[in-house]
Amino acid sequence: MSSKGLIAIVASAAAGLVIALPAFGAPTATTVDVTAGKPSELRFTLSKKTVAKGVVTFKVANRGKLEHDFKIAGKKTAKLKPGKTATLKLTLKKGKAAYLCTLPGHAAGGMKGTLTVK
Questions:
Q1: Per-residue b or e along 40-54, where b marks 16 or more CB atoms closer than 10 Å to that residue's CB
Q2: pLDDT of the residue at 113
Q3: Among 6-15, 85-94, 101-110, whose mean pLDDT is lowest?
Q4: Sign of the CA dihedral 48, 99, 71, 107?
Q5: Of 106, 103, 114, which Cα lies nearest the Cα of 40?
Q6: Residues 102-117: b if buried by 16+ CB within 10 A, e if exposed
Q7: What's the rounded Cα separation, in Å, for the pair 63 and 70?
């Protein structure tokens, strides 16, 4: 076998390993869609209630009539006017992560919950 043929085989095998890595435990990013203010003004709706530990991106949309924000794991979005969106990206550890709206009275009115991180 020529050295060019051997190099081609090794390169092909290496490329196959790189492509296969995500299937064998490499971290994957998770996206959670968060809707604020719908179906009722002082509620959040999350597309997932449980996520894998690691990088999580929260895509927050305010569908209500009041301003809202979204806070989780010590990070929060800016205040979102009705119809506006924001993205919050962070790394979560295994356990429970509480989330809430920090505007006065909103969490007390029901804009809070817990996300499970496995």
A1: ebbbbebeeeebeee
A2: 97
A3: 6-15
A4: positive
A5: 106
A6: eeeebbeeebbbebeb
A7: 13
Which pTM does this prediction carry? Answer: 0.76
Find all residues with CB under 8 Å of 38, minimum gap 6, and list them: 45, 63, 64
Give, in order, the Cα–Cα distances in Å from 17 to each of 4, 7, 13, 80.
Answer: 20, 15, 6, 43
CATH topology of domain 28-117: Immunoglobulin-like (2.60.40)
**Residue spans per domain, the chain:** 28-117
With beta carbons less than 8 A apart as the criterion, state whether 41 and 65 touch: yes
pLDDT of res. 2: 54
Q: In sequence order, what are the residues at sequence separation of 6 or more whose Cβ sits closer than 8 angstroms to the Cβ of residue 42?
A: 101, 106, 109, 110, 111
* CA-closest candidate to residue 91, choices 106, 104, 75: 75
Rg (CA), the chain: 21
Hunting for tokens 């991106």 — which residue is that?
57
